[in-house]
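Researcher: Structure prediction, please.
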Amino acid sequence: MAEAEIVKKIAEFEDKSLLIVDDDNPFRERLARAMEKKGFSVSQAEGVKIGIESVKSKKPAFAVVDLRLNDGNGLEVVKEIQKNNSESRIVMLTGYGNIPTAVAAIKEGAIDYLAKPADADDVEKALLADPNKKAAPPENPMSADRVKWEHIHRVFELCNRNVSETARRLKMHRRTLQRILSKRSPR
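Model: Predicted structure follows.
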């Protein structure tokens, strides 16, 4: 029943163009194929520069943009989309979810912010959600241990993989941090 409602909503949009900007080629290809099956007219870009060029030539009605790209920040693409088509519905994707970047994405014009790996159904729900209604809670939220692990690894990457600097910024002992970094990610 819910699936039929979503398909009906896609059909209600005159412009079904969707731009996917992500530098993870296998993920982008899979998402593009899935979104085409759902009724979107998909175009792809693997970086900020190509994404901005694509936006200028074809103003998309929908966009899925990764926050961190090889050649820059996905927020630059979001700004360009908003400048060219303020009615565009944009969803940010990231493997480094945190509150400041989510706030920045929303301020630039994104309607939602999803942590990777997001599947096509989650992306579709976010793109077609009623902007006046509160979003439903996620089906499979990250565990508290996973959120902590993601945060530690994000700070570690931002400190250029320097354990001592990361430990200082996180206010933890260096050896404790080394033990955490040596473990696999929690589910």
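Model: The CA atoms of residues 40 and 85 lie 17 Å apart.
Researcher: Thanks, that helps.
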